[in-house]
């Protein structure tokens, strides 16, 4: 008899919320305590060094190598005062999460002793022995060297006893091997292209910054229950488990009162996040039971992304101190909502203007329309690529799979903005424009209410929704590195804005006044990118058909979706913006395909093991009990009565036999199919077979396991069930 499940369930119930030690100071006082921010730079660096460093941070000025030693010395002083003994280059390889290798701040002092040391050279560049990071063949083992280089635009911080220095990670031949290097390039590209376009409206603009405000969704599971689920432990999701009778039907979790034990965890997490300079602000229950969300105030995109990665490692750590495990997987449980990471994204200028927000004057609104329409054009042209940028084996369960919404990128604009675009498209030029000579900007573009933010109707089904002063890229997975989506989006917009400038300038050259040239090009664009605009229900089946008619990318197979990265127009876009070249794109796709295969491969192995040594033996044992009972009934009762009394049990015995037979046969078939697939040399082809064949088998086998869960004696079932995983908190 399985006592395990009851033991873990019992202990989970007995857990008391941990007491959170609330610091005596207020958040404003401990915010960024562990961050080497400007305040600390000012205190620990010579003033000339400080000025140069801040110039590099704020204006992207090239960093003078000669100051590296002084910066390192200042950092060392601060870090040792804070109790740090080690440092690490902290980077984002092409895996989930971050990488770090710690070195102590020590060196020989030449007199037989040790001294604390940290030089500029060590700050600026390191050579991690990184041959085992995914690189898609760029670095074969003979040329295994790669190096990490300091990114001064994201401040160093301390975790435990280690000073972490955000870095990019590139090969010796200069190709990016990480997410940060191309992200920084994409941000630079959109900065440059957007500044040029801003000059139509304000020649003073010198810098345009992309902002990112992520919303991190996650599940919490009691640690004991988690440990008793090998599938959660090894794959991050449940590969089996019948739906709980009560799920999210009553809609009683979303925005509900936060359970006490969870609230204690959240409080602790927020305190730790604030100390690391992550400006966390919002917390609430999400739609599914045991699902929650955390969101900070938006920040400059590169920093926001570093903060998200840091938060993902912090949340895991803090959860464990509260007896929870956090699940960042996009779909840990079948039948209830999955988790995403909405990427709220916008552009802002150094003159303090949010470019995706409507303004008070017509000129401001023309600028607003310029940026919104160019964004729509970029998303339209590269809708397949944007989908590829958020596609993964795990996010596929949230987008494109059976119960998930279709994997199609479209943009929701809301009633008001839709009307404005329609007017722009339909009004004859003369009606739309009323340009009187030299006044230039006097024109008659439709009024846009200032308070769009509060007025925008909400459409939760749209993967790319306009929400008043920003776009919300909602298709991003909860586990993902946001950089993947942000690289594609910002690079695509940079390319589009460059095209826009060319188009407008060409008209101006022909003698068209500036404003009317801008309006004319925007009007052409509105017509072209119309197919991307969809305000209806993105989850409906009709939309799938409609989207296909409109020519949007409707592919649902993740390995095939990745082909978008290697389309001619994609390569051209990434190369012309200087974000990535063909070699890098090809190498990264190799990594993507390989990762996809490995994920499904691990799931298939885990499911096979669990099926054969947890599920089938338990079901067979219970079946033997039933058989035993049938025989005993025969001894106790007259034959006819015994048959009648045992009818249900006989039925169950047969059902169990059918299900276990199916499972045994198909686990064997799945193993064979894997062996065959593993022979395939091309990573792309292999991933496709894993998608087309093996991923489907997982679902088929699961179906029979979930049926058995309903039949087999509850006391025998070893694995914690959905009702326990989802409702114990
Ligand atoms: P909701 O769930 O209603 O979308 P949240 O408050 O959970 O809203 O999250 C909104 C996120 O969007 C926050 O991170 C917020 O800082 C961010 N945000 C707000 N305005 C902008 C903007 N202009 N650009 C980028 N992010 C923004
Ligand atoms: Mg949101």
Could you characterize what this model shows?
The chain has 729 residues and is α+β, with helices and mostly antiparallel strands. The chain is 50% helix and 11% strand. The chain is built from 26 helices and 17 strands. Helix 14 (415-426) crosses helix 18 and helix 17 packs across helix 18. The longest helix has 55 residues, at 582-636. It is globular, with a radius of gyration of 29 Å. Residues 211, 213, 215, 282, 295-298, 344-346, 354, 469-470 line the site of adenosine-5'-diphosphate (ADP).
Number of helices, where a helix is a run of at least 4 consecutive DSSP H or I residues: 26
Helical content band: 40-55%
Percent of sequence in beta strands: 5-15%
Report the end-to-end length measured between terminal Cα atoms: 26 Å
Hetero groups: adenosine-5'-diphosphate, magnesium ion
Query: What structural class should be given to the helix and strand makeup?
Result: alpha+beta
Low-confidence stretches: 433-444, 446-451
Instruction: Tell me how many strands there are.
Output: 17
């Amino acid at each position: 008899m399985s006592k395990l499940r009851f033991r873990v369930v019992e202990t989970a119930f007995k857990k008391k919320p941990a007491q959170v030690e609330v610091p005596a100071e207020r958040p404003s006082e401990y915010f960024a305590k562990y961050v080497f921010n400007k305040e600390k730079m000012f205190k620990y660096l010579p003033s000339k060094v400080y000025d140069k460093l801040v110039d590099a941070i704020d204006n992207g000025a090239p960093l003078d190598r000669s100051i590296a030693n002084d910066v390192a010395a200042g950092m060392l002083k601060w870090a040792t005062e804070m109790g740090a003994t080690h440092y690490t280059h902290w980077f984002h390889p092409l895996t989930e999460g971050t990488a770090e290798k710690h070195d102590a701040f020590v060196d020989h002092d030449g007199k037989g002793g040790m001294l604390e040391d940290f030089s500029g050279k060590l700050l600026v560049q390191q050579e991690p022995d990184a041959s085992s990071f995914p690189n898609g063949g760029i670095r074969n083992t003979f040329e295994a060297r790669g190096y990490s280089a300091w990114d001064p635009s994201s401040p160093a911080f301390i975790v435990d006893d280690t000073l972490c220095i955000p870095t990019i990670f590139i090969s010796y031949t200069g190709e990016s091997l990480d997410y940060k290097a191309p992200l920084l390039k994409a941000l630079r590209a959109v900065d440059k292209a957007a500044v040029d376009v801003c000059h139509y409206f304000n020649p003073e603009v010198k810098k345009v910054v992309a902002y990112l405000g992520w919303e991190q969704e996650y599940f919490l599971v009691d640690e004991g229950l988690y440990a008793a689920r090998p599938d959660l432990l090894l794959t991050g999701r449940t590969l089996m488990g019948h739906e709980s009778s009560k799920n999210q039907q009553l809609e009683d979790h979303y925005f509900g009162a936060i359970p006490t034990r969870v609230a204690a965890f959240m409080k602790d997490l927020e305190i730790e996040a604030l100390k690391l300079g992550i400006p966390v602000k919002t917390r609430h229950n999400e739609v599914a039971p045991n699902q929650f969300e955390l969101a900070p105030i938006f920040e400059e995109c590169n920093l926001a992304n570093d903060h998200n990665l840091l938060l993902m490692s912090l949340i895991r750590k803090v959860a464990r101190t509260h007896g929870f495990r956090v699940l960042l997987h996009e779909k840990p449980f079948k039948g209830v909502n999955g988790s995403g990471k909405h990427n709220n994204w916008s552009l802002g200028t150094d003159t303090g203007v949010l470019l995706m927000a409507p303004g008070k004057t017509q000129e401001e609104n023309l600028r607003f329309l310029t940026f919104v329409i160019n964004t729509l054009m970029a998303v339209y042209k590269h809708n397949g690529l944007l989908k590829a940028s958020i596609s993964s084996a795990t996010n596929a369960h949230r987008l494109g799979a059976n119960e998930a919404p279709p994997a199609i990128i479209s943009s929701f604009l809301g009633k008001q903005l839709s009307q404005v675009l329609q007017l722009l498209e339909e009004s004859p030029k003369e009606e739309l424009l009323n340009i009187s000579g030299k006044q230039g900007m006097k024109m008659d573009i439709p009024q846009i209410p200032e308070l769009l933010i509060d007025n925008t109707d909400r459409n939760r089904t749209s993967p790319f929704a306009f929400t008043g002063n920003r776009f919300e890229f909602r298709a991003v997975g909860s586990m993902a590195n946001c950089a993947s989506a942000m690289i594609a989006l910002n690079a695509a917009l940079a390319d589009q804005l460059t095209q826009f400038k060319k188009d407008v300038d060409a008209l101006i050259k022909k003698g068209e006044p500036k404003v009317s040239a801008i309006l004319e090009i925007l009007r052409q664009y509105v017509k072209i990118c119309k197919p991307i605009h969809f305000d209806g229900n993105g989850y409906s089946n009709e939309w799938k058909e409609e989207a296909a008619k409109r020519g949007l990318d409707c592919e649902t197979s993740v390995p095939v979706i990745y082909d978008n990265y290697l389309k001619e127009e994609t390569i051209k876009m990434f190369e012309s913006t200087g974000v990535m070249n063909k070699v890098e794109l090809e190498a990264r796709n190799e990594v993507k395909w390989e990762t996809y295969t490995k994920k499904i491969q691990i799931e298939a192995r885990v499911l096979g093991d669990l099926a054969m040594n947890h599920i089938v033996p338990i079901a067979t044992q219970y079946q033997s009990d039933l058989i035993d009972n049938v025989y005993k009934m025969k001894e106790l009762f007259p034959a006819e009565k015994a048959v009648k009394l045992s009818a249900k049990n006989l039925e169950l015995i047969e059902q169990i036999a059918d299900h276990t037979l199916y499972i045994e046969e198909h686990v064997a078939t799945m193993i064979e199919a894997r062996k065959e697939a593993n022979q395939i040399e091309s990573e792309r082809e292999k991933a496709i077979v894993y998608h087309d064949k093996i991923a489907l088998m997982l679902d088929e086998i699961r179906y029979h396991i979930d049926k058995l869960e309903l039949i087999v004696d509850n006391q025998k079932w070893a694995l914690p069930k959905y009702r326990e995983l989802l409702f114990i908190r």
